[in-house]
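Input sequence (249 aa), recorded before submission:
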Amino acid sequence: MKKVIFGTLCALASISVGVAEESGVFAGVSYQGGQVHLRENYGGFASMRGTHIPNSDFDENYNKNPMINGAGLKLGYKQFFGESKHFGLRYYAFLDYGYANFGAIIPKKGKDGTTAYDDYYTHMLSYGVGVDALLNLIEKDNASFGVFVGVGVGADTWIASGKDFQKQFFPNGKVSMVNFQTTIDAGLRTNIYQHHGFEIGVKVPLLQDNIFSDKDDNVQPEPVAMMTMHNQTRIKRDYSVYVSYLYTF
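Predicted structure, token format:
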């Protein structure tokens, strides 16, 4: 009887000992939602040749803050240190996708001759490499709970609508397809049965992206009209909140 009791106590004691998280290659997928900020300024000077219509200048400014929704992929290696393995680092490559609609702000000529507007929207690709510091605060049977904080370096690419509008009024404008970007992120994480990880975090890009610019571009939208146009379009992803699933091989 004593042997049975002693064996049972030893078994319970072994179960109560936390299992440290192991190093390994991992892959992850995430859903992301956040906010993006559009700052656009365009305008110019219009002259109506051969008419009595006076010359005029105009200036338009747009500041929009819609939501951006998308997904992310991550592939890398996590490494824990010491016997307790409470602290670690992970190194990874990432790819984020997002979609944002800024509303009907692209002018066009309507069917009845009045001005109508099309939606202006963008597809975002953000990609690069990053490193996170990992700290496991609680170790339980086949599970660990902790926090992470990290930085990333890479680039953003914005694929925007409104190409016909740009060609008509800003034919010599420059589209910036690649913009350098750096990010910080932080959050909570758990790892279950060594292979399955779940996280919730927030990512904050630090830099504004200049996606289109034009200056002193001469266009002739109508036979008697001559316009000198300028445009500056900037976009910044303010933040993204994400939930992730990661699998460690």
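Checked by second reader. The first strand starts at residue 24 and ends at 48.
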